[in-house]
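Sanity check. The docking grid for manganese (II) ion depends on where the pocket ends up, so I'm generating a full predicted complex first rather than guessing from homology. Inputs follow.
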Amino acid sequence: MSLSARQEETIHRALDAFEIELPSWAFANTGTRFGKFLDSSAATTIGEKLADAAQVNRFTGCCPSVAVHVLWDFPEGLASAAPASAAAQNLGLRIGSVSPNVFQDQEYKFGSLANPEGSVRRKALDHIVDSISIAKLTGSRDITPWFTDGSNYPGTANMRRHKRWFEEGLRAAHGALAPDQRMLIEYKPFEPAFYHTDIADWGMALQLAKAAGSQARVLVDTGHHYQTQNIEQIVAWLLDDGMLGGFHLNDRRYADDDLTLGSIDPYQVFRIFNEILFFEWETGAKADIAYMVDQSHNLKPKIEEMIQTVTSAQDLFAKAAVVDRDQLVRHQNSCSLIDAEECLKSAFQTDVRPIVGEWRRARGLAPHPLRAFRESGYLKRAIEERAGHAQPVASYA
Ligand code: RM4
Ligand code: MN
Ligand code: MN
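Predicted complex below; grid placement will be based on this.
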């Protein structure tokens, strides 16, 4: 399919409106539960993580914010907020979503908001409320709690009581939000709880979001689904109910592998973006969605993997933007199955890279961000400056 001037214009407009938030933890040495391989250019401090994120933004032009994890990035809690914001600002960035951490401390061995011990439930709630205060100081709109609560063996936990503790805890946390803040509730089918997880799927997250209050939404981490699950249908339903808050973008071959977005199944990512753009076309309203990356770059060079991620997301978003909506709806209405499917597929098969390159040029960016980053010499300088202090920092695994 060759592109008309109108389609090119559509791609430009879609990319103008497409911002992606980078995760601070993707620039640090992360790994699997079997260990971490050190990368001598990896960031260890929040300052270094922000500097690396700024490189991604510099070459892609679409990543103005960085998601943070309170315990990993703000060791001094509230006191870390102002310096981190200032550091971000100096780099042309801002601090984005704030993730509380109620899964790492020893007290959380048997859960956080659903711990049978009242004092631990209280501690978890206090930490989430503190995280909301941090988010107020950093000017962050979204709080993104993720919970490991659940159980590992049948008979060891009262699932109904856990559910009620979650309703109670999330409602209390919601009470601390400023009027313009949101709480995005993430779900995950398993790990580290392997028998039952309290917030295991989108239905549970949706129900809890509704119980928590009017500023709560669901966060869809693309890796947190069983194989063959129809993620775009979940997205379509949440959009229709006004309950889709945002994404943690990544890819997976099995589950929660935190691989590079689109590396295993780019058609899946395209279908998700297609549902969002279809919704926007039909309603005439922009979906209020935070697009965040959540990946663990344990083998690839971290900044390069992030540039690869962001440019893949832009390509797939651009492909979704060129779906001929009028034609697709006509085919759907007349049940012309082959024509409808071919209409969708021809957009996916379109080579949008020249137009995405044009979009970059028009904004003063290099047409090939990865190449331009490699030519900048930043990585070499980072390795020299950081040599000797590369170490695994607190993060997953
Ligand atoms: C979880 C989930 C959360 C992330 C943690 C570290 O699997 O994806 O978003 O914060 O990992
Ligand atoms: Mn996630
Ligand atoms: Mn995950």
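Relevant for the grid: Residues 118-138 form the longest helix (21 residues).
Also worth noting: The mean pLDDT is 96.
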